[in-house]
Amino acid sequence: MTGAREHEYHAVAFVENFPLREMSAEIVGGAMPVPVSGRPLHDLRRPLGEGEVFYFSFGAIVFRDVAPEGREAEIARLGRNRPLQSAADETVRVRVSPEAPLGVNDGCLTVDTLTEGRSRIIALTVAQSAAAEYYERIVDEMFGRTAEWVDGLEKRGTVEMSVRPLHRFIGHAVGIRSEVITVLHLLDKPDETWDDPSMDAIYDDLRDEFDLVDRHDALEHKLKNVQESLELILDVARDRRLFLLEASIVVLIVIEIVLSLVRPH
User: Which of 46, 152, 184, 188 is the most exposed place for a label (fewest CB within 10 A)?
Assistant: First the structure.
C-alpha cells in the first residue's frame, strides 16, 4: 500500500509497580519538572533510538519500534537500582496509511496518521493487556487455593482453627481487586479521546481486540467469588472457635461445681 508504514508496540508487565515520581530523573536521564503537588504521576515517555518508550506507574513498559536488544538493555538499566521481575508481555502492530480505513484487522491497527496522543493511547492499551495477563495468572492461583479450602470444608465439615492465614488471604484478594480496578480503569476514557474524535474509535477497537472489557469482568467475577468463599470459610472458622470457647466455659463451670461439691466444708 502506497505510503504505508508499520510500527510495533511491545509491552512488558512487571510484578513491581513503578514509583514514577521517584524514578522520573532516572528514566529521562536528567532532571525534569516536578508534577503538580498532590497529583500522582501515571506515565512517562522518552525517545529511544528511532523509537520511543512509555513507562506506566502500574508496572509496565511499552517500546515502540525498539529492537529486542534495545528493550533488554533498557530493562537492565532500570533494574540496576531495583529488582525487576517481568510477568507478561504483549505486542500489537500499527499500520499508518492515509488511504486505508481506520480499524483493526488480523491483529494490526490501521490509522491514517500517528500523533503523540494516539501513540500514547495505543501504548496504554497494550500495557493494560499485558498487565491483565499478569493479574489473570494471580487470580487463577488464588481461585485454586480457595478451591482447596472449600474442598477441605466439604470433606471434613470444618476448617483449621487459625484464621490468620484466611485474614491475610482475604486482604490479598481485596488488594488485587483494587489493583485490577486501578490498572484497567476502562470506564474512564483517556483525555486524548476528547481531543481527537477518531481516537475514541481507535481506543474502542483496541479494547475489543484485546478483549479488555470481558477480561476485566471475568477478573472481577473471579475475585468476587474468591472473596465471598473466603468470607464463608472465615465464618465457619469463627463459629468453630466460638463453639470451642463456649464448650471450654461450660467445662470450667462444671469443674468448679464438682470442686465445690467435693471440697470439705
Answer: 188
